[in-house]
C-alpha cells in the first residue's frame, strides 16, 4: 500500500530544461525520513522540460496548457495529497535539510498557517551579494511593516492546504511571477492566522531573469509591492525615472539616525560577504 505523504512539493515549470534536472535532484535528495510527493506542473513547455521530468521515477507530472503561473500553482495544489504543501520554482536548488526545517516548523506550531524563507542567487556577484544581504538582515520581515502582513515567496514556502483553500487559492489573473502571485496569496492568508518568515530556511536560485535588466526588474517588483502600500508608488516612480537616488529614498522613509545605522550595517555585511 502506498504511504500517504506528509508533504506535497509543487513545482510549476515552463521551458526549464536548463535548470529543472538539478532542481528535481535537490528535491529528491532530501534528508527527510517521512513520505513526501513531488508534483511538477508543466505550463506548456516547448523544450525538453517534460522529457527531463519523466527521467525521475515517482514524480507526478501534470500538463496544464492554460498559461499563467498562478493557474499552474493552483493546478498542483489541487491534486496535492498532503495538508502541508511546499512550493519552490523549477530553477531553485534547496539544501538537504530544507524539507525537514519546513516540516518541523509546521508540525511544532499547529497555529502556523504558512512559513517561508529566502532565495539566494548564486550565479553572479551582484545578484549573490544583494540576496545575501537581504537574507542576513531578514528583509522579509520588513513586509510586516510595509503591508501590515507577512508576504512570502513561492520559491521557498510551506503552507497548509486548508488555508490556501479558504482564501480561494492563487489569483489566476496574475500570469507572471514578477507580479507577485505569492505575496498576493500569503498576504491574504495572514487574515486567517499566523504567517512568518525564517532566516534559517533558504534555497539557491538562478538570477537569469535579472541579467542585464536589474533596474527594470527591481522597478516592476517594487511597483507590484507598492500595490499594497499605495503611498510608495510616487517614490518608486521617481527613483526609476532618476528623480531620486537610493540614498534620498532611504532618507525619505526613515529617520536620519536609523538611516545612518542602516548604511553602516549594510556596509559591514557587504564586506563580510565579499571576504567569504
Keywords:
276 residues, alpha/beta, Spore Coat Polysaccharide Biosynthesis Protein SpsA, Chain A, eight-stranded mixed β-sheet, 12 helices, 43% helix, globular
Q: What can be said about this structure in brief?
A:
The protein has 276 residues and is of the alpha/beta class. Helices cover 43% and strands 18% of the residues. α5 packs across α12 (256-274).
Helix tally? 12
Major β-sheet strand ordering: 3-2-1-4-7-6-8-5
Unreliably modeled segments: 248-267
Q: Which class of the domain at 7-120 and 140-203 in CATH terms?
A: Alpha Beta
N-to-C SSE series? EHEHEHEEHEHHEHHEHHHH
- End-to-end separation: 49 Å
CATH topology of the domain at 7-120 and 140-203: Spore Coat Polysaccharide Biosynthesis Protein SpsA, Chain A
Q: Give helix % range.
A: 40-55%
What is the approximate shape?
globular
Report the sheet with the most strands, covering strand number, pairing sense and barrel closure. Answer: 8 strands, mixed
Beta strand %: 15-25%
Oligomer description: single chain
CATH superfamily of the domain at 7-120 and 140-203: Spore Coat Polysaccharide Biosynthesis Protein SpsA, Chain A
CATH architecture of the domain at 7-120 and 140-203: Alpha-Beta Complex
Work out the radius of gyration.
Answer: 19 Å
